[in-house]
Specification:
homodimer; Gal_mutarotase_sf_dom (chains A, B); Beta-galactosidase, Chain A, domain 5; hydrolase (chains A, B); glycosidase (chains A, B); Glycosyltransferase
């Protein structure tokens, strides 16, 4: 059982209770502020229910067998908030439950253009009564605090129907922690502060016990029973439950239609009455817009998005669907986050405790920067809003400037294992990278002045204090962990050093560009440039490759031949110490450096390095395939690049990591865009210059992608022998095609021939680690 | 207030309640099997009570904020067992409590020759009645399961005296853990299995809740009131208390004399009835020997020991006392351990949870090997008895052979922080080193066949699987942690590699010597020799020193000038990441390599390396000073060596690390022996050859030391210009004096001139880190 292959939607036919944990994630709706997993309206059966408000979390103590100075004491975990999705149905005296009776027909469809999740179920109750249930659900892109559900029941016999629409707080869910204190902190995390219910409307306000955050959820309803005015309704509220009930006799072929409007809000500062007012206002707005109005706004928002961002893939329908699925979820994760983080799982599940990582800046934001730049800006504003926490963290660590956290919800470091957490200082360089990339792609001067310069300067200060000039090698950055999590606490990680180099230079430029916006001195700026110029980049003269960090290429090789498939991911079957000391790479590290700092490598170095690391990279991380696709395409392994694109694109749809129940992998979804646009499209932005080097893989007959750059929307169409660049909207664009300068104007598309790719032999991969995906 | 300076005892005059936490440790008695802290008989006031049975521990779950494969799940903590030291006194209606009334005279004396702790107190009760209380306590070296106390009260008025002698289980003590689960596991850890009390004798049997170990404690009494037969006694037992009570009217000038015999035993296998029988048998033996007999045996044992091991120091009485104090506690820790570990604190306190570390093999065992070799052998037999656990651990880690634990009570790894625990693989090489050293010093062929060969072979297998031949540098051992805990997860730690090299060669020799005792193949043996010959030893050609590991000398320098004294120990004020990436050394590492593998360095290298590391070593570990003394003396800094000797010798007596309340630092006590014998005596045993290179520091007029080697007991006496070597007992000895071969025979002492020491400039030490001690 699987998804139907259709270009603009994701449809699952049939019930498959044992697959609900997957579809709840893939069918999740979100606008970046509210997230709702794709659970059935009736609440059960279910895999893992989940309703999330971006940033709303509970705190708990982090346990340590042996403590160390500077270890974070408080962990944060996303909270499953008051569930407003629930609409239960009683058909005569039988509750609708798909595990009982007979689901004669059942399908659910996530529509990438309407931005809704639809359901159609023909159910026969255990006593033989049949009803058709249709629902459509949305989390509004246009009204940030609003979600809505249209729920329609059409009986095939004359029956009494009772519909119960709930707000349910403290839903019982199985603990995901094996630490009893953490489990206790997250068992019934919400404490009621306020409740009210009147007519069709109810509000519940809660707060968390330890983090002290407050939230409010409200619902209002419209009920319409065709051909009947005898509908009996009631509403009530308790501490953890508000319930609107409607009962009516409905004739065969007639229908009961319930429209449920939901308003959500939370705050760490505002009072309960203020939050109540906020959600009631949101509800009033939603009701005034009405269901049809919300649907229309939703579609318009998405029409606009697809116009800027759509990717067409000819020759692989399944990939076409997967790419749009990916873009749809990226936009859901980022659209209305507004100074909140974009978590690793978006708002699709509780994986990684709801934390945001560097994934945001290095994988998700490039997509948003070139498709919905305001969303990228808002995510960077979240980082900017956490600068105080990052400065505090740097101070605890004995450093200057700002050290952004490895994992966090509110900006405070939550990593309980510092070698793979705090030591991964590249996260601060990644934030700077994304900041610089956004600036360059938008020329957003306000952001440059108000936020970007401070981010760049504070992160540059971090590097200046973290590294040192050494007589042996130049400016060294020692004792850090790069992207590859199968190495840790290494010296001169090439990725880190190159990201730091760019960071230092970008900060120097920004400080000189906006002298009033920073207290950086001339000496400080000069020191940044000096450090950048002297940056140590290790090179192995014997093997003629870049070690991903000092000594890497001297380490023992991993015994791939004797590592069977069931020993992957390796970190679940081998100790860190063994992974760290050997040449086994979890995810693109030096290869990622060759993508984002491709300007620092020659073509020959790229080819040699790529082959070297391909043979040692196991892709136990979902972050890797997209990046490997990019470099594979660049050095000329188009088939391999295509395989990696497929792996990235199907990571969640085919549950390649067996954990999609915890939420979607935003970075992997984004990686499929990157594989296509930066991989086969050859899009690069080194030094601020946008360039392309497209090539068509054998598997496709054509592909096209769209993006915006400094206000200009462009479309690139790639065929086997030529590529066409077209302005969709905006001014002309100067760019390069395979190195050759071209100018595209609004009325003058440019078509260029594509040079033949070097047909290289496919590099050796570790035993058993061929790309997956189909 | 301080200790009186006397050559053969440690005496504290006056009460000083606020110093009890110190004197409880320094006055602790132990035979390596039973340990009793020096608490007052009446139980209170107290710092931290403690009675320990070597190996008797409770288990608890180790918590992790983020788990990793192979992390140990169970922690172990030494348990404060049933306290048999307690003897309470009621003088008329006033309990003797030193916090009330008036301690007119009070002194306690640890006697290094009698092996007892004596007390004399003249106490005036709040109501003005005076008594003299005298006690003497011993933990028997000759009867392993036995301790005894003589308690004598002499009233200065006619009074009624009531004496209560207890066995008290589950003594309430403040939790030392901030993890509630660990604290819970150790709060009242003992569960009663059996109790009995009859006449003057009582037995309590308990078991631990989680580890399921069983123990028994028994007491018997003799009571004697001079000039009175009217003594009323009673005895009773409850779950956690057995109490013998004696009441008598005692005339002024007369006395009440109570002799308490204690028997202790524990087992993980034997039943409660068997344990009861065991302690009752021990008691019967003790009573039969009697108090005077126990005293006589104790003195004879120690007379023998001092005859082999005594050190005389002329010109520094305080140091003389400190050195004998050190030797006395080393012998207490090791004498009767018998296939149990020698914990880092001996049995003097609960520090480090009662765990044994590599301290045993590299610091304590060299002393025992050359003074009480059977004790060294027994400690190595403990390691041998844990080989199965070490093999299991190696297998979990993906390695061959045996990986001994970083910290443990029963042989299973208990370190919850692997970069400073499991990664410190040198511990396995240290066990091999001590094994080889013992073999060489004793020619113990039984041990060679039965235990040593297996230890050497299994540890060699570890190295063979942990390292690899690399085209760049030879046989590399990557990703390990050396002795210096301010570095971790490094490549080619010189100490580790040199210890491994010796281990590999020793295993090859042992396997060839005892071919029937190992399944090692010829190929395997050849591979060990090949790895040893190719061992990578990094060297910095620019600075002309050995980096303690790859890259060390390229790391940033620590800013010592801006690190005030209150920021030490650094690990409590700076994050590991910062310590790890900089050139700051907690404890001798490369310098330790230059001591134990001095054959691998030239004299010039030693001098340059020593100066380099002196400037970067902060001695936040008590393991360091002794080793620094050895190398300082070797390269010619005699004054500095003396300062380090003083620091090592007074670590506990002057509580230099502010934690003597948790127990004594066995390695530091041992380090004072090493500083003297290997430092000023220049004793080395490289390649199995015993050699000397004595030199007298300016601060002394003469010193002498004794040791045994292959059954021959020798004495070395060192004066300014010459040294005399004398056979005390046994055959002739071939050795070297400052490189010159000499032969000492039973009737022919040899006196040799001492070449003048090079008078070198004192090397620079880190700001504020001069040796302490007085």
């Amino acid at each position: 059982m699987s998804y139907a292959i259709e270009p603009w939607q994701l449809r699952w036919q049939g019930l498959a209770v044992d697959q609900l944990h997957r579809t709840e994630s893939t069918f999740a709706l979100s606008n970046g502020h509210i997230g709702m997993r794709g659970t059935l309206e009736e609440g059960e059966p279910r895999g893992l229910p989940g309703t999330y408000l971006n940033g709303f979390h509970e705190q708990h103590q982090l346990p340590y067998g042996e403590k160390g100075y500077g270890y974070p004491e408080a962990g944060q975990t996303v909270v499953n908030v008051t569930d407003g999705k629930i609409i239960r149905l009683l058909v005569e005296d039988e509750p609708l439950d798909m595990r009982y009776g007979n689901a004669i027909e059942h399908e659910r469809t996530l529509d990438f253009r309407s931005g809704t999740l639809r359901r159609r179920t023909l159910w026969e109750s255990p006593t033989g009564r049949r009803v058709i249930v249709r629902s459509e659900r949305l989390v509004s892109f246009t009204q940030r605090a609003v979600a809505a559900i249209r729920y329609e029941v059409e009986p095939m016999d004359d029956v009494q129907l009772v519909v119960q629409s709930d707000l349910l707080a403290n839903e019982p869910i199985q603990s995901r922690s094996n630490d009893p204190r953490v489990a206790a902190a997250l068992d019934s995390p919400l404490v009621n502060d306020f409740m009210t219910a009147e007519k069709t409307r109810a509000v519940l306000c809660h707060r968390t016990k330890a983090s002290g955050l407050r939230m409010a959820a409200a619902m209002d309803h419209e009920i319409d029973v065709a051909g009947s005015s005898d509908v009996r309704t009631e509403i009530r509220a308790e501490d953890d439950l508000a319930r609107f009930t409607a009962a009516a006799d409905v004739a065969a072929g007639s229908s009961l239609k319930l429209t449920k409007y939901l308003g959500y809000g939370w705050s760490g500062k505002r009072s309960t009455p203020a939050l109540r007012a906020q959600v009631e206002a949101a509800l009033a707005g939603a009701c005034q817009t009405g269901w049809d109005g919300l649907l229309a706004e939703q579609r318009e928002f998405l029409d606009n998005f697809w116009q800027v961002a759509d990717i067409e893939v000819d020759g692989d329908d399944q990939l076409q669907q997967a790419i749009r699925f990916a873009l749809f979820h990226i936009i859901q994760a980022g659209a209305r986050g507004e100074t909140r983080a974009i978590p690793g799982k978006g708002l699709t599940g509780p994986g990684y405790d709801g934390h945001a990582f560097w994934d945001t800046e290095m994988f998700v934001l490039p997509v948003l920067t070139y498709t919905l730049p305001d969303a990228a800006r808002d995510a960077l504003r979240w980082r900017h809003s956490t600068l105080d926490a990052a400065r505090d963290r740097a101070e605890v660590l004995g450093l200057k400037g700002a050290a952004f956290p490895w994992r966090s919800i509110n900006g405070a470091e939550c990593s309980a294992y510092w070698p793979a957490g705090t030591a991964a200082f590249h996260v601060s360089g990644d934030v700077a990278y994304a900041t610089q990339q956004y600036l360059n792609a938008t020329n957003d001067e306000d952001f440059d002045r108000e936020e970007a310069t401070e981010i760049l300067v504070e992160t540059a200060r971090l590097w200046a204090s973290l590294g040192h000039h050494d007589p042996h090698d130049g400016f060294r950055i020692d004792g850090v962990t790069g992207p590859d999590e199968y190495s840790a606490i290494v010296d001169n990680n090439v990725y880190t050093n190159l990201i730091a180099q760019q960071n230092l230079r970008a900060a120097a430029d920004a400080a000189e560009r906006n002298p009033g916006r920073t207290d950086a001195t001339e000496d400080e700026i000069a020191a940044w440039r000096r450090a950048a110029d002297a940056m140590a980049i290790p090179y192995d003269d014997m093997l003629r490759v870049h070690p991903q960090a000092d000594n890497f290429t001297k380490h023992a090789e991993w015994d791939f031949e004797n590592t069977p498939e069931d020993k992957y991911p390796l970190l679940l079957h081998f100790p860190y110490f063994d992974l760290y000391r050997k040449q086994v790479v979890k995810q693109a590290d030096l290869v990622l450096a060759m993508h984002v700092r491709g300007d620092a490598f020659t073509a020959e170095e790229k080819a040699r390095n790529f082959a070297y690391y391909e043979a040692r990279t196991v892709r136990d991380s979902s972050l890797s395939a997209g990046t490997q696709a990019v470099l594979a395409a660049e050095v000329g392994h188009l088939d391999l690049a295509y395989d990696y694109l497929v792996e990235a694109a199907f990571t969640d749809l085919h549950d390649l990591h067996n954990n999609v129940n915890n939420g979607l992998h935003m970075a992997s979804l984004a990686g499929s865009w990157t594989a296509l646009v930066a991989g086969f499209g050859g899009m690069r932005d080194h030094g601020g210059e946008l360039t392309f080097a497209p090539r068509l893989p054998d598997a496709l007959t054509r592909f096209s992608f769209r993006m915006c750059f400094r206000g200009t929307r462009i479309a690139v169409e790639v065929r086997e022998a030529e590529a066409t660049y077209r302005i969709v909207d905006g001014a002309k664009l100067e760019t390069r095609h395979h190195g050759e300068p071209i100018t595209i104007t609004a009325d003058q598309p440019v078509t260029m021939p594509i040079p033949a790719a070097p047909r290289l032999e496919r590099p050796a991969l570790p035993f058993g680690r061929e790309p997956r995906g189909r």
